[in-house]
Amino acid sequence: MSLLQKLVSMFLLFFLLLMCIIPSFFAFPPNPSATSFGAAKYVAAEGNKESEALLKWKASLDDNHSQSVLSSWVGSSPCRWLGITCDNSGRVADFSLPHFGLRGTIHSFSFSSFPNLLTLILWNNSLYGTIPSHISNLTKITQLDLSDNHFTGNIPLEIGSLQSLSNLDLSYNNLIGRIPFSIGNLRNLSLLYLWENKLSGSIPSSIGNMTMLTRLDLSTNNLSASVPREIGQLESLVGLSLSFNNLHGSLPPEMNNLTHLEILQLFTNNFTGHLPRDLCLGGLLVNFSAGYNHFSGPIPKSLRNCTSLFRFRLDWNQLTGNISEDFGLYPNLNYVDLSHNYLYGELTWKWGGFHNLASLKLSNNNISGEIPSELGKATGLQMIDLSSNLLKGTVPKELGQLKALYNLTLHNNYLFGVIPFEIQMLSQLRALNLASNNLGGSIPKKLGQCSNLLQLNLSHNKFIGSIPSEIGSLHFLGDLDLSGNLLAGEIPSQIGQLKQLETMNLSHNKLSGLIPTAFVDLVSLTAVDISYNELEGPIPKIKGFNEAPFEAFMNNSGLCGNASGLKPCTLLTSSSKVAKRKSNKIVILILVPLLGILLLLPIMVGCLYFPNRKRRERISCLGERQSPHGFVVCGHEEEILHEKIIQATNNFNFNNCIGKG
Amino acid sequence: MGGGNGQKSKMARERNIEKQKAAKGSQLESNKKAMTIQCKVCMQTFICTTTEVKCREHAEAKHAKSDVYACFPHLKNDACKKLISYSTRKHLTRLSLFFLFLYAPSFAVYLPSKKMARLYPLALFLSFLLTISPSLSTNSEGNALHALRSRLSDSTNVLQSWDPTLVNPCTWFHVTCDSSNHVTRLDLGNSNISGTLGPELGELRHLKYLELYRNDIGGKIPTELGNLKNLVSMDMYGNRFEGEIPKSFAKLKSLRFLRLNNNKLSGSIPRELTTLKDLKVFDVSNNDLCGTIPVDGPFASFPMESFENNKLNGPELKGLVPYDFGC
Description:
heterodimer; A: alpha/beta; Leucine-rich repeat, LRR (right-handed beta-alpha superhelix); four-stranded parallel beta sheet; B: alpha/beta; seven-stranded mixed beta sheet; signal (chain A)
């Protein structure tokens, strides 16, 4: 190599070195909080310990991705590293790397090197392995969040020694085993989230010692046994969720002490017995969900004044009791679902006060009485399901005021009367189910104004008259069920306009006539049933009809077509059917007069014959005697009569003549 | 989960508790707050789907002295967690896919800011991570719908009941689930909705009915909709959709009804759609489609009205070499 080349290469090398060194000066400025050289040295030394521990952990991480995330972790002072914050003394106080996709374990993390660590936040990474017991070395830690990772194994007993902890979140991992009893030692804990793990065993009674606890969520685990009484000691509790476990038994009455509860979720367990009597005594309960259990007894009276309620779900239990007894005002109530219980009573709530109610679900109970017209005042209602109850009375016309209503489900009750025409005002209605009631009258034409209707079920009522043609203007209708009524007349051809209709059930009515030819436009039809009517004629040549089983057509007057069980509609058959009808008419036209003539003939003959006989008799009278006055009397019997007449009229004396014709 | 309780299979789960702040007042207010992240330092609020990146950007831009968690302690918030993780994951996936095909040095060219520099190498590897990451949380369908909601403008509040804090979306209005709490129907036709759709809709693997007709939704039809293997009906007619009909629709093997008429779709009708044996109704009228009309498979039976008012060149001419005029 020439001298020039050597010089150039050396210069380049020097330049490169400079390029490496200079940035590090900017990356790692001297620690501003260092007050003296000695302190700085101490800090540097301890900082070194911490940085070493962090780097060691970084090195233990699995993949290149994690390494690149932590690419700023170089040097000896960790305070400017990604996710690291130091306190005034230069020690690591916060270690927060949520949501970075770090993959590895925390076994090699030297917790003892971080006595000043206050927060350790690693949620939503891909960390796995167990939570090591030496985590207890983090003596000052206040927030520990390892949720949304793949941690397995047990929660270490040593967790109980982290006395400064106020937030502990190990949720959404694969942790197994029991909740350690030592957890009760965390006297300062205000938030404990262990939800969505595979924890088993019972809730430890030591839980009662965590009196600062405001939020406790143990949901979605395999916890069993019953709720310990000690839970009543958690008087600061604002939110409690035990849902989706295997907890059983009754709730301890001590739960009545939890007066600050805003959220109580107990759903999907095996709880039995009664609900706590004094629920919402503090007037703060906002969300109460205890569905899918075996709770029995009444809805607690204390809930009647619970004006803070927003969401109230007790569905799928065995609750009894009278719901009408002053159920008060719930200005905030948005969603209520008490369906699938044994509740009785009437809907005598003060509906005008339910401004916020959007969803009312009380189906499958024993609720009686009428649907109150005041229900129309709860103008926020979007979904009403009162099906499978003992409701009677009519469908109140005031329901037309519920402008936001998109689902009205009232099937399986004892409602009677007509569908009020105010139903046309429900422009948002998507689903209307009035099946299995005693409704009557005709199907209102105005129903055609509910242009957004997707599902219409009026089956098993007593509707009469014909199907209104206005049904054809429900352009988005997907399912139509009018079966089991007394509908008569012909099917209106406008039904053929329902291009999105997929299922149509008109069975068990008295519909007659031909199937409209317009039905060939029902392009979306996949399931049809027109059985048990008086329909005749060909079925339309569309998939929904052609593929239907015989049960869909049976018991009609003479349907024909290319479907199972039906006679094929040949041209002859169809025209001969028509001809047959015509010829029937002709036959009748001929037969009747013929029969008439035949019947009348003997009479006519008789009429003609009898006068002939009389004449003949007169002609055969032996000896005509002409009386002096000119009428003819003859015959043997007539002779006797003649004698009598002569005698009676004194030989036709003029005095006995009463008149001359 | 143990237990043989048959009712459990019909459950709707609610995990509201993580949303509860110490805030007093009605649940309504809390819910609204739950949907927002508020920077504790300056009290500026962001909606919950704000990615953590944006939170960091705000913190670093406005409050350089405090760390992100002084501004956003609520980043821990559960629903926010899941939403952030979801949207950022998707956001980063797209980025990573883009950058997969670039050389590392070229990253520098695209850096809008030094702060974003951290993300791009991350993004590159995140895509691999995603393919081997475990399944999304049990509320993935709710997350997907909530992500959809954040893209849509809903002037009449039909989506008001879409509470992301609930364990699944089965009690949301206009959402129908089956007995295993999977979303099977989305009925948002005629709902005064505008905005765009996103890839998250493809996550609703059990969806059978996607009804979004007669709204004001624009943008492209996401190709991810092709992942909806169980879809029976897709009605997106009467919107402002643009771009092409995705070829991925050929994967919709259960599809019976596809109505995309009255939009601003362009490009050609993908030939691949002829493989959809169950397709009974196909309407693309009143768009800007070009090319030829397929004639194979179900297309043999579609009436001409299904194709009218486009720039189509008539039916595909079959011969030894099928050809189409292209667009």
